[in-house]
């Protein structure tokens, strides 16, 4: 479903978005929305079917906004999507 470079790009982008997010960001940065970060994270995967993208959107939103989110499980799940 994904090649290695797509998976690595997704993981890099999600990590970057999570590291730059803080709870007051939508208030302190006018015009910011979590959706713009999620869209950026998913850009390398635009070829995936819509139902896969929707599932990833929800998980990415959790990972960005919740520091206790199961990040290792997300990494494992993304790596499982790599086609060899």
Describe this structure in words.
This protein is mostly helical. The chain has one domain. The chain has helices spanning 4-20, 25-28, 34-42, 50-65, 71-80. Helix 1 runs antiparallel to helix 3. The longest helix has 17 residues, at 4-20. The radius of gyration is 13 Å and the shape is globular.
Write the layout of secondary structure elements.
Layout: H1 4-20, H2 25-28, H3 34-42, H4 50-65, H5 71-80
Helix pairs in contact: 1-3, 1-4, 3-4
Summarize the structure.
The chain has 84 residues and is an all-alpha fold.
Provide the descriptors you would attach to this structure in a database record.
about 80 residues; mainly alpha; globular
Number of helices, where a helix is a run of at least 4 consecutive DSSP H or I residues: 5
* Fraction of residues in β-strands: under 5%
Largest beta-sheet details: none
Number of strands: 0
Helical content stands at 55-70%
Element order, helices and strands?
HHHHH
Structural class label: mainly alpha
N/C terminus separation: 9 Å
**Domain tally:** 1
Indicate the mean pLDDT: 94
